[in-house]
Amino acid sequence: MHSSYFVLKNKEGKQAEQLVKDYLTDRGYTVQDVSEEQDNYQNDIDFIVQKDGRTSKIEVKLDTRLAETQNIAFEDVFYLKDKETGQTETREGYYHYSQCDFLIFVSPANKNLYMVHFRKLKENEISLKNCFKFVKFYSYTDRCQKSMRIVPVSTLKEKGLLSVFSYQCNITARRGSYNLKMNRRLLHTVKYQCSSLFSYLDIKFS
């Protein structure tokens, strides 16, 4: 895997984070970027978000195929092969160690934000075990085999663990990098209108 590819993927991810940050800021939330702080980086947290005296931890992911697959894919396990010994060791993906309250997946294909109530999902993990499928493949970004924990968008919606919002913004490829064109005035919510993001902290799991 070429280093230029890794740099490109990193730029995409940073632009997705900026999109979500602007989206929340425009709706009156105070957004603190903690993605570069060591403790929060290890706990898979990008933002600390506050409004009306409530605080939540947010992690942002970019998924360019979500609109097509209509599946949410969580990073489950990495399989790291030692080139000298040939032995393979496993490392847990963010699904197991992330301390975020919400995972927000940015989907450029349909300009949607998929907000997963991750804390609630983990609290009800046992009852959800039959909803997941596991897919193993080689990741050029991570340079190893890894498995993903897959669950349909429709299932998470039915369980009250997912909300979908629309944004008016383009992430377009240009000259080998990604250019983010932002028009904050056009950002709008098309589903699950609510006065506060944190109302989702109290949703019921059925």
Q: Give the oligomeric state of the chains in this entry, treating copies of one chain as homo and distinct chains as hetero.
A: single chain
Placed side by side, the strands forming the largest sheet appear as: 1-2-3-6-7-10
Number of helices: 7
Q: What fraction of residues sit in β-strands? A: 35-45%
Brief overview:
The chain has 206 residues and is α+β, with helices and mostly antiparallel strands. It contains 7 helices and 12 strands.
Polypeptide structure, described:
With 206 residues, this protein is an alpha+beta fold. Helix content is 25%, strand content 38%. The protein has helices spanning 3-25, 38-42, 66-69, 94-97, 118-123, 125-128, 153-158; strands at 30-33, 47-51, 54-62, 71-81, 88-92, 102-107, 112-117, 133-139, 144-152, 162-166, 169-174, 177-182. A 6-stranded mixed sheet has the order 1-2-3-6-7-10. A 4-stranded antiparallel sheet has the order 5-4-9-8. The chain has a two-stranded antiparallel sheet with strand order 11-12. A hairpin with a 2-residue loop joins strand 11 (169-174) and strand 12. The longest helix is centred in the first third of the chain and has 23 residues, at 3-25. It is globular, with a radius of gyration of 17 Å.
State the main characteristics.
206 residues; alpha+beta; six-stranded mixed beta sheet; disordered C terminus; globular; single chain
